[in-house]
Structure formats: C-alpha cells, structure tokens
Write a structure and sequence with these properties.
By secondary structure, this protein is α/β, with parallel strands linked by helices. It has a domain of 194 residues: Rossmann fold (3-Layer(aba) Sandwich). The protein contains 11 helices and 13 strands. Helix 4 links the parallel strand 4 and strand 5. Helix 1 crosses helix 7.
Length: 286
C-alpha cells in the first residue's frame, strides 16, 4: 500500500523519522531554505520551499502529515496559512504535531503526565499550548507529541566540554527531562503503525536530571576536568538561557511504553551520551 508523508518543517526530529520509515514510503518535505530543499532532494525526498510553494497538491497526495513548525508571535504559521485546507483533508490517516513538555509549566520538580493541566510559565510554552488547541480543533486524526529537551548527533555537550565553554549552572531542585532524537523517531514510527487519534504522548527518557549532572558526566566520558559549578542566582546568562530555568518538572513517559510498546534505546542520558560519543568519535566511550 502506497503511503506518503507530508513533513512540514522537515527538521532534526522529522529527518530522524524518515530514516526509520519502512521501504515504500514517499516523503514530501518542506523547508524555508532553497539550499536545504536541494539537499533533501539529493537524499531522495521530494522537497518544497514553504512558505511560497502551493501545498495543495502535496496535501492531496499525503496519507500522513507531520508538523514540526514552531508557532511564532502570530501563532502557528501552518494553521494561519493552511487551516481551512487542513480541515477539509479528511483523507489523512494520521496527523502528528510536535509540541513541547513546556506546556505543563513549572511543577517544582514534581512529576507530570499527559493528564496534567496545561499551565505554561513561558511565552514559548503558551504559544505551543495555543497551537495544540488549534490543531485539535481541525477534527483530524491528530496525535500530539510533547517533546523534552532533544539531543543527538550534532546536538550534544561534547563540543562545548572539549572547547572549555560548557557551564554547570546549578539551581537547587532544578531538573530537566530530555530525549535522544532516535527515540523520538521510534515513538513517531510506532504511532504511525498504531494510530490512536486524539492521543497525546510525552516523549522523554526515564531519568529527569539536573543539567549540571549531564555536563559532569560528559566531561568524565571525555576524560576532561568537570567544569566548575556556577550559582544560577549570580551566573551571567542571556534572558533566553535563564528562561529555560523557569520550569522544573519530571515528565512521565509510561504512555509511550504501554500504548505503543516502545522500549527506549537510550533510557537515560548516560546511555545516550555514550552512544553519541561513539558516533562522534568512531570509538567506544569510556
């Protein structure tokens, strides 16, 4: 059976998904950058520069749709530009929207699951919560994926640790959940194989941890000195960097295991960083 994925904003996580899709899939990917579109075509994907291109023909062909495009100050650009056509796209078998665990807001380090009320503490989180509601209002077979902090090849701490620019900012009680991009891909693929319209899934690993612990572990894997601890209260940080510390919570991931049968490849940052170092160095970590 022919299947076609329309991937809106074909970025880091969506690219990981396409690498694990079974043979026979057609992928139509959008990007804002003409050069990136050329690179996608070189990898065997169909590519559209959007905004700009007419999405109508691609949407008509699509059996599945994934949106990775973040909302901006004016809301979700996909809903703003294509909402009516999406609402009419009743042929779609599966729709995925990549959101963030930031929609839960601050829980003082406590645990949250998919039933927790949305109480975003940041502007980014509020925009995501509004976008989720907009996608839900379309009446499509929607699946929402709330992603924790993403890491993976090209997005790890090792380069900064090696360069001596990694920082161990310590804020008492602060924990973050995170997820390796390969585990995002396998969750999305599992959902496509087992659709459950209306479902919401947290995608995170089993071990929410203080950020300073992750940097320290990365340094040890490299055999380099652990960067000194810096007090959050007095550390020099950009407003954007400081805003990430406005929320502390531990995110539960039981639903991806129970409903989708997912066994995480990297259940904690320790396994994830070790594997990442192997990819980057071509040799086992340790």
């Amino acid at each position: 059976m022919s299947r076609t994925l329309l991937s809106l904003g074909h970025g880091y996580s969506a690219q990981a998904l396409t690498r694990v899709l079974p043979a026979g899939w057609t992928v139509i990917a959008t990007t804002r950058d003409p050069e990136k579109a050329g690179a996608l075509r070189a990898r065997g994907l169909e590519a559209l520069v959007w905004p700009g291109a007419d999405l109508g023909p691609a949407l008509a062909r699509a059996t599945h749709l994934l949106s990775s495009i973040a909302p901006g100050p004016d809301g979700d650009p996909v809903l703003n530009a294509e909402g009516e056509r999406l609402r009419a796209a009743r042929h779609l078998e599966w729709v995925g929207y990549l959101s963030t665990t930031g929609v839960y807001g601050d829980h003082g380090g406590g645990w949250v699951d998919e039933t927790a009320p949305l109480a975003p503490a940041t502007r980014r989180g509020r925009l995501r919560a509004e976008a989720e509601a907009g996608w839900q209002a379309l009446g499509l077979p929607l699946h929402i994926f709330r992603l924790a902090g993403i890491y993976g090849p090209g997005r790890g701490p090792f380069a900064k640790v090696r360069a001596g620019t990694a920082r161990r900012i310590v804020k008492p009680g602060q924990v973050f959940s995170r997820i390796h991009v390969d585990d995002i891909a396998q969750v999305l693929a599992a959902s496509i194989a087992r659709p459950n319209p209306g479902a919401i899934y947290n995608i995170c690993d089993d071990d929410p941890a203080p950020p300073q612990d992750v940097i320290a572990h990365a340094a040890r894997l490299l055999g380099l000195p652990v960067p000194p601890a810096e007090d959050f209260a007095t550390a020099e940080m950009t407003p954007m960097a400081r805003s990430f510390y406005a929320e502390s919570k531990r995110v539960r991931n039981d639903r991806i295991k129970q409903e989708l049968g997912v066994a995480l490849k990297y259940p904690t940052y320790r396994e994830g960083l070790a594997a990442l170092l192997e990819v980057e160095d071509g040799s086992p970590a340790g």
